[in-house]
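If you are new to this repository, start here. Below is one unmodified record pulled from the training split, so you can see the exact layout before writing a loader.
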Amino acid sequence: MLKATGAAAGAAGVGVVGAGVGTTALASPALAAGSAFAHPGLLHTRADLDRMAAKVKAGARPYTAGFAKLTANRHAQSGWRANPQATVYRGAGSPQNYTVLYNDIHAAYQNALRYHVTGETAHADTAVAILNAWSGKLTSIQGSADRFLAAGLYGYQFANAAELVRDHGDFALERAQDVMRNVFHPVSDSFLRDHNGAVITNYWPNWDLTALACVLATGIFCDDRAVVDRAVEYFKHGDGMGSVKHAIPVVHDDGLAEWVEAGRDQGHALLGVGLMGTVCEMAWNQGIDLYGYDDSRFLKGAQYVAKWSLGGDVPYTANTRKKGAIGGWSGSETATRAAGVDPAMTRPIWAMIANHYTKRRGLSASYLTRAAAKAAPEGGGGDYGPNSGGYDQLGFGTLAFTRDKATDPAAPAPAPASSPAASGARPQAGATPSVVASPASGRDLAATGSEEVVGWAAAAGVTAVAGGLLLLRRRDRVRQGAAE
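And here is the target side for that same chain:
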């Protein structure tokens, strides 16, 4: 995604960011406040997993098409063998090896998901072996500012893969929890606290949202209510650009709300929507309704991005953000319009969001529905290009998130008995959503926003012309010492 600011990068350097560095280590589960959370309860609940298995067994569409995407992926094979590292590096100036980590995590997740659908124990055993290998060796995340991306993205993904096998007899649960709380979480938590020493608006929403996804996943996976509460509070009121009102600053009467990163480029806007949806889904599965927060603000922002990405015209209010390091280089940048798009560009993000609003809540969300249909059947890591941007989402939404319409869409599903306090509680059964969901009538774009936009676009099936336009736009907006 982005590079370090000049002064901030110098201050952070390429130093070790590992267990307990620059932040207070989390309490052990035994010391965590409150009772345990519902498990499995990150992106998938027991009901979700049972639904997938039953639908595929019955030959129901589109589940079978989604499952075919999973079984065809090279990461979903039980012969996968892990290659764990003690230190993972991401970013310029370091001996980068983070590709090993994300490939292994996606193999663990895909094998675990395949096990839950088919019951074939070889896939569960493979997932467990991969995760145990990494939890037995990984001690730190290092690199340039991109280390924050590595910790956030691969932290929330590691937790999700581990959540699917947490009850397996051979799974080293406590060791996996230690890796989350002492390797991934400290890096993400420190970013939300001080943003790498940069001014608060220096980093676009994606940076906050990767960190936020990791912090929330850590809290749930490790049964630490205080950590979950911090994540929920940041989503609602955080100072950084990834909190919901900063990522979606302008709401229009027609039911659309501007996604601020649309003024940057399409790839990062899609990434941001996918990450915010991931945060909302994990929270929802613990009885916390961030999907509906602030009159379903996220729905309005996701609808905006879906319409824009499909080629529709959208308004954009000029947005000026300050950049640079505190006490160092500083400047500003103004985005005046939504960037150009290629309707062929996609990510596996739409099925989860569209199914929540239209099936769980019974709302009309025409642009989300169209975007989800166009992207179906959604694949996962390894299906969207060879570089890191193709692994930013776990994917397989057609299989995992296609839902039957709720009998009473206005009534949310029962919250877990241990759901967090009222600050994040879902609406009462029978409440009518007031939102108007539809209008009246080396590196790659997705991961670091670097110069390989055309390469990523080509790998994802995007036309060279559109990729080139995006590339020119990014180059035009880079300034000396500025974060991307």
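Two things worth knowing about this chain: The longest strand covers residues 319-324. The two ends are 7 Å apart (CA to CA).
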